[in-house]
Design goal:
With about 110 residues, the protein is mainly alpha-helical. It has helices at about 1-20, 35-50, 55-65, 70-90, 90-95, 100-110. The protein has six helices and no strands.
Length: about 110
Amino acid sequence: MRAMIFMFFITSLMIMGFLFNSDPTNYGLWIKPINFGLLRGAFLFGFGMSLSVCCATGVLTDLTMGFTRALITLIFFGIGVFLGFPIQRTAGWVTNSWKSCRRCLCSSKSKKA
């Protein structure tokens, strides 16, 4: 557990050093803050975490201890990822945002053209 906390700390320091005194809009990130896909995904993620009693990192540590629920969770986590990514690119309830930044919309349209 201490090693994992240490890794999160080192990662946070590296990201902070990378983004310090820089403009995040230069990275071309497209963030869709609020939409139905976000709410549905948050509900499903929370439901899955309550059934498996831990998150994806916890599943990997539980798997090494021999818990069968960890293997079942990992299988369904993988299925969800492989089904979710194609849906994420095509479904309107995921791609359309309820609130968007005008600057982000303009930069994404210019990149597609």
